Amino acid sequence: MSSAHTSVIVCANSTQRYPQLIAAIDSVRAQTAPPGEIVVVIDHNPELFTRAVRRFPDLVVVENSGPAGLSGARNTGAGTARHDILAFLDDDAEADPVWLEALTAHFARPDVLGVSAFAEPRWAGDRPRWWPEEFDWVVGCSYRGLPSTVGPVRNVMGCAMALRRDVIESAGGFDTALGRTRSGAAGCEETELCIRAATRHPRGVFLHVPAARVRHLVPDSRSTLGYFWSRCYAEGVSKRLVTRRAGIGAGLESESAYVRRTLPSAVARNLADVLRGDSFGALRAAAIGIGLGATAAGFLTTRARPGTPGATGSGPAPVPPVLPLVIDLAEAPREIETGPDHEPYTRARCLIVDRGIPRAEHEVALDGTERTTADVLARLDGNVPRDATGQADGTVPRGVDGADGNAIRGGPRAGGACHRIDTTVAIATRGRPELLAECLASIAEGTVVPARVIVVDNAREDDRTEELVARSRIDGTTVDYVREDRPGLAHAHNAALQEVRTGIVAFTDDDVRVHSRWLENLTGAFDADPDIVCVTGLIAPRELDTLPQQWVEGQGVYSKGLRPRVFDMTRHRGDDPMFPYAAGSFGSGANMAFRTSFLDSIGGFDGALGTGTVTRGGDDLAVFYDIIRHGGRLAYVPSAIVLHPHHRDLASLRRQVYGYGAGLGAHLTRCVLNEPRAAVTMLRHHRAATARLSGILRPPTVDGLPAYPRELSRAQRSGLASGPARYLLSRYRTRRETRRQAGV
Fold first, then answer.
1. What pTM, to 2 d.p., does this model score?
2. How many CB atoms lie within 10 A of CB 305?
3. How far apart are CA 724 and CA 652, in angstroms?
4. Residue 336: which of 372, 369, 364, 363 has the closest Cα?
5. What value does the mean pLDDT of the chain take?
6. Contact, 484 vs 457, CB < 8 A?
7. Which SS3 state, helix, strand or coil, does residue 480 take?
8. What SS3 state is found at 597?
9. In the predicted model, is pLDDT for residue 195 greater than 90?
């Protein structure tokens, strides 16, 4: 695995250690094999964040969106990073030039889950002569007893380690109940994560690589006997918490060998040093006893309370996976998949549709004998809605909720599908060619295909996407590649818009698979009502294997319901006092289409918003609001279905909800700046606004699932509070860049 496909993550929380942070980043820049990116995570320190943004304009600098502490910061870094290998370096460590090259070389082996470097203590003064080398872990460094050559270990060491992204995600991220904070020295978060990861990847291995070396600063304050004792005690506390989560056997497997073999040998060696004239050998032997006693005291005196499942934010209690199915009554039965461990699913979440038109949702218990969707339908005991007319709702015209005879332009393709010569599909992507290939394949399998597909490679990191597009083929459709170097989803969408020559343009994300009737029903809404200028559709789950995925689906983050709706400033305002500012009910950016001329007339998408910018989102909210504010009509058409892969792990979900909060705050700030009376409306209806925000930030518990974690609510609330400042900063940067490009 090349280091170019590695993200190096450096977490920092102390302004006093700012010089060490600079030195750590400089050592990463000086690597013989540079990383693909450097991510700096600032842990709840606004002053340090401001300084880091100014000092490192070419790096990705973000704030910890989770709970304060090293685990929360690492989770944020993992969620922010783009590459498949994630290397972590402490802010007070400096890496040797070959550190990253030596680490990443071992990921060529598919069974390697993570790699740990050798951390050499760099004492600010002289090394205390009473300090035993077997206890260098006290100061976050490698210790006597580790393998002297490349060899397997139970867990990596956090000071300078590298892990596969999917290993962190499958394990649920670092446990935020463990790990260092400003007020505590608890650790073992990487130990606990590796234990969890090993259970999910039983054939995997973690390696210790002595050739990958870093020098870890040990200040004088950590050279005292008092610190030695307190840190050993804190380690005992952490080990107790780890055993509560992983069990005594796994939690103390390495420690038992360390106590039985390494420490007795160390005591004997140091006492022998006394006989050879080194009087400090006796003190080192005594320090071993003190350290072991302090660690045992911390372990034995700590009452480890079982946490609320999912409350720590890193190891949600496992829940039975659920099979999401979209079953179209008009289509032939198809085979169903097995669970994540190749075991049969015990439950299915079924979206029943008729020619793409949603009829109902059902939870179905399975017994493992089901092989096709017909078997699943049989378990509904005849409770399957069948309506030959396809009419979904008496209040909405037929064409708004499905295709009609006027929806198709052009003749049939091979296999009976048709193409629309008036429609372009635009897909923004960034470094995910595997997912993009699935998205393109699903578009090609549709009952209707567009005249053209435009793939926008946003802030490209390599040429894999361009190569994929060059060899992509869809019968009757042109597939084109566009490069947009400015990061940001809105910039990517605007780059596609500049290339559109058709009357309709549809946007979707690179990680979705579209339903076979997606484009047919999405564009059919435009045919049914010439006043409609924007159409959004339903977003259903592709996978519900993990608790975070089930939380997302249960809270209705993506789905806007099964009932079609129309929005405008006249007859279709509804009774929402926050209309049209609360644009989240209009739809989502992963599934939207526009009349190209109207989208052009309102200036396209706001480049200061969107994933990839400092605002973290809000671009879809803003464009929906702009559509309504400029007199357009927007239709939500649930028969236009795409399947979205919700985040599997809590670390990524935490980052996502923080981004949702930041994007919402940025969008509302933009509303007030562009339309000052929006502030008056929000103040006048502050109770309704507060109630809506409360529902977003503290969603109700879903039946059968553990309570939604408070830390996710805190992350979203923190993102919301940061939204105004983020938008002002992003708008300033966007306008400055626009003036620079115009030569002003």
1. 0.66
2. 9
3. 23
4. 372
5. 86
6. yes
7. strand
8. helix
9. no
Find the range with the poorest average confidence among 90-104, 409-423, 706-720.
409-423
Cis amide bond preceding 541, omega within 30: no
Angle at 318 between CA 314 and CA 321, to 5 degrees: 125
Q: Which of 712, 599, 676 is nearest to 308 (CA)?
A: 712
CA dist 258 and 235 (Å) reads 14
Question: Collapsing DSSP states into helix, strand and coil, what is residue 307?
Answer: coil
Residue 236 has pLDDT above 50, yes or no: yes
- CA-to-CA dists, residue 493 to 424, 605, 645, angstroms: 12, 7, 21
The one-letter amino acid code at 185 reads A
Distance of CA 136 to the CA centre of its chain: 34
Confidence of residue 306 (pLDDT cuts 50, 70, 90): very low
Selection from 44, 83, 33 nearest residue 60 by Cα: 83
Six-digit token string for 119 = 């951390």
402 pLDDT band (50/70/90 cuts)?
A: very low
Q: How confident is the model at residue 412 (pLDDT cuts 50, 70, 90)?
A: very low
Q: Using CA atoms, how far apart are residues 192 and 661, in angstroms rounded to an integer?
A: 30
Q: What is the DSSP string of 163-205?
A: EEHHHHHHHTS--TTSS-BTTB----HHHHHHHHHHHH-TT-E
Q: Show the tokens assigned to 306.
A: 């079982």
Q: Which stretch of DSSP H or E encloses residue 673?
A: helix 650-674
* pLDDT category of residue 381 using cuts at 50, 70 and 90: low
**315 token code pair:** 């190891």
User: What is the per-residue pLDDT for 344?
Assistant: 86
- Cα–Cα distance between 615 and 234 in angstroms, integer? 38
Task: Check if the beta carbon of residue 514 is closer than 8 Å to that of residue 446.
Answer: yes
Q: Which tokens is 484 given?
A: 């947009």
Token readout for 558 is 């993506």
Per the structure block, which two tokens stand in for 23? 């030195």
Residues 312-328: tens digit of each pLDDT = 444 455 688 999 999 99
Token digits of residue 268: 């004997």
More confident residue, 169 or 34: 34
Residue 341 near residue 571, CB atoms below 8 Å: no
More confident residue, 285 or 177: 285
Q: Which of 303, 313, 128, 157 is nearest to 227 (CA)?
A: 128
Report in angstroms the alpha-carbon separations of 484 from 62, 137, 431, 590.
Answer: 23, 46, 13, 19
Q: Which two tokens stand for residue 648?
A: 């599997």
Contact 413, 440 (CB under 8 A): no
- Rounded Cα distance between 326 and 84, Å, is 31
Residue 286 token pair: 């005594």
CA distance 540 to 555: 13
- Residue pointed to by tokens 């780890």: 242
What's the chain's length in residues? 744
- Out of 44-48, 63-67, 684-688, pick the least confident: 684-688
- How many C-beta atoms lie closer than 10 Å to residue 330's C-beta? 12
